[in-house]
């Protein structure tokens, strides 16, 4: 797969799919610019070569028509600051206005197109819409790994209209780092899986069982395992239809010599609220009326020791209800241990989504080896699925 690193963009117009799906507050100000920062190396390379950059992205989930709250116009100022370049804006993605803006663009300048999802052809992977987009540039670059698992017009279909197509620095780094934990992991290798549901992580867990030495399970999904083993979990989250699956995973881990580490205790609460009454309970004996909302001190100590002794760490999913301060301690403790292990020479990949947001909000983003920008895309890639956005660059 070709990357922007080996290509000269002098006098070329690059049509680039980036991921500018950033959170905005009620005043339309960016509250987390991680995704904007991620695009800087690719855009700078194109502009420094003496080329022009035309950016395509989605923002939020509009209903196939313009909605002001999802307009990319709100972030033009943030992009100018990030790129140190003039950023023009086109109120449409295709058609006369977009084509005229593209033709008038000068070398070293950027054109941001309006939200691609304002057109229904985007999510349908419509060929006519993709072809109309392709008229805007000479070269196609995909740097939006976070949407590479979707066969949309701007992420996949548009590539077929270009001879020159390549991955940006984000896309290339995501694949390289994912491959590192999939194929070249140093031992001991620990995967930390959290979040609410086993069903969201079943394929990745099965894939990892053949590779890891330790599999740590935290978050809401751990209670399904305890119920499957005959424990009492009170009012904790449970997937009743996944109890047999949990038993199977316990058995598979045993057969493959993987240390499956479930949290021995929890911080339990009598209500799903930050100000609820709390206490510590063993996870096989949570009383009715109480629910586990974070891993407990014993579990935290065991998990931290395992992480700090590891040479490769993959982390996807939180240990508790991180958005509530009283149930964020488990996730914070694991983050601290991942940082410590990294400082001691371990390779640590934070697998996008909630875990990436948590690590960044704690100020640890630059203290781990790599923070993925793609939650769902990374999981699908690690499950062994071919991502349409990646396949399109190789076709």
- In oligomeric terms, what are we looking at? single chain
Q: Which stretches of 5+ consecutive residues score pLDDT under 50?
A: none
| Spatial strand order of the main sheet | 3-4-2-1-5-6
State Rg. Answer: 23 Å
β-strand number? 17
Portion of residues in helices?
A: 25-40%
What is the number of helices? 14
Beta strand %:
15-25%
- End-to-end CA span: 9 Å
Question: How would you describe the shape?
Answer: elongated
Q: How would you sum up the major sheet?
A: 6 strands, parallel
Average pLDDT, rounded to a whole number, is 95
Determine the structural class based on helices, strands and strand pairing. Answer: alpha/beta
Summarize the structure.
With 395 residues, this protein is of the alpha/beta class.
Protein described:
This protein is an alpha/beta fold and 395 residues long. Helices cover 35% and strands 17% of the residues. It contains 14 helices and 17 strands. The strands form four sheets. The protein has a six-stranded parallel beta sheet with strand order 3-4-2-1-5-6, sandwiched between helices. Strands 10-8-7-15-16-17 form a six-stranded parallel beta sheet, sandwiched between helices. Strands 12-11-14 form a three-stranded antiparallel beta sheet. It is elongated. The N and C termini lie close together (9 Å). The mean pLDDT is 95.
Question: Topology, please?
Answer:
Blueprint: E1 13-17, H1 34-48, E2 52-56, H2 76-83, E3 87-90, H3 96-104, E4 110-113, H4 120-123, H5 127-134, E5 139-142, E6 165-167, H6 169-183, E7 189-193, H7 202-209, E8 214-217, H8 222-228, E9 232-233, H9 243-255, E10 259-261, E11 265-269, E12 278-282, E13 285-286, E14 291-295, H10 297-308, E15 312-316, H11 329-343, E16 347-350, H12 353-361, E17 370-371, H13 375-382, H14 388-394
Parallel strand pairs: 1-2, 1-5, 2-4, 3-4, 5-6, 7-8, 7-15, 8-10, 9-13, 15-16, 16-17
Antiparallel strand pairs: 11-12, 11-14
């Amino acid at each position: 797969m070709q990357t922007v690193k080996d290509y000269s963009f002098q006098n070329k117009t690059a049509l680039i799919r980036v991921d500018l799906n950033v959170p905005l507050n009620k005043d339309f100000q960016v509250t987390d610019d991680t995704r904007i920062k991620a695009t800087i190396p690719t855009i700078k390379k194109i502009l420094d070569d003496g080329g022009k950059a035309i950016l395509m992205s989605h923002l939020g989930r509009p209903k196939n028509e313009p909605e002001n709250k999802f307009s990319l116009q709100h972030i033009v100022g943030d992009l100018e600051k990030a790129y140190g370049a003039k950023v023009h804006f086109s109120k449409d993605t295709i058609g006369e206005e977009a084509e005229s803006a593209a033709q008038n663009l000068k070398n070293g300048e950027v054109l941001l197109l309006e939200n691609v999802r304002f057109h229904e052809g985007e999510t349908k992977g419509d060929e006519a819409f993709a072809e109309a987009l392709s008229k805007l540039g000479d070269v196609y670059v995909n740097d939006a790994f976070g949407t590479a698992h979707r066969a949309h017009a701007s992420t996949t279909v548009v590539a077929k209209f270009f001879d020159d197509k390549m991955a940006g620095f984000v896309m290339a780094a995501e694949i390289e780092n994912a491959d590192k934990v999939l194929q070249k992991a140093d031992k001991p290798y620990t995967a930390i899986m959290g979040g609410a549901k086993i069903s969201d992580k079943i394929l990745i867990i099965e894939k990892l069982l053949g590779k890891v030495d330790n599999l740590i399970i935290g978050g809401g999904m751990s209670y399904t395992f305890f119920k499957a083993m005959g424990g009492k979990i009170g009012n904790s989250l449970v997937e009743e239809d996944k109890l047999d699956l949990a038993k199977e995973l316990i058995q598979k881990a045993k057969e493959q010599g993987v240390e499956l580490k479930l949290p021995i205790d929890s911080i339990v609460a009598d209500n799903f609220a930050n100000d609820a009454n709390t206490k510590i309970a063993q996870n096989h004996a949570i009383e009715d009326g109480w629910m586990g909302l974070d891993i407990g001190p014993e579990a935290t100590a065991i998990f931290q020791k395992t992480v700090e002794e590891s040479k490769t760490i993959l982390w996807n999913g939180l240990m508790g209800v991180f958005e509530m301060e009283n149930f964020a301690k488990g996730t914070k403790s694991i983050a601290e241990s991942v940082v410590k292990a990294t400082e001691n020479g371990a390779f640590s990949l934070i697998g996008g989504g909630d875990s990436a947001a948590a690590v960044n909000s704690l100020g640890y983003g630059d203290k781990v080896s790599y923070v993925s920008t793609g939650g769902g895309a990374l999981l699908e890639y690690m499950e062994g699925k071919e991502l349409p956005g990646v396949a399109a660059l190789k076709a």
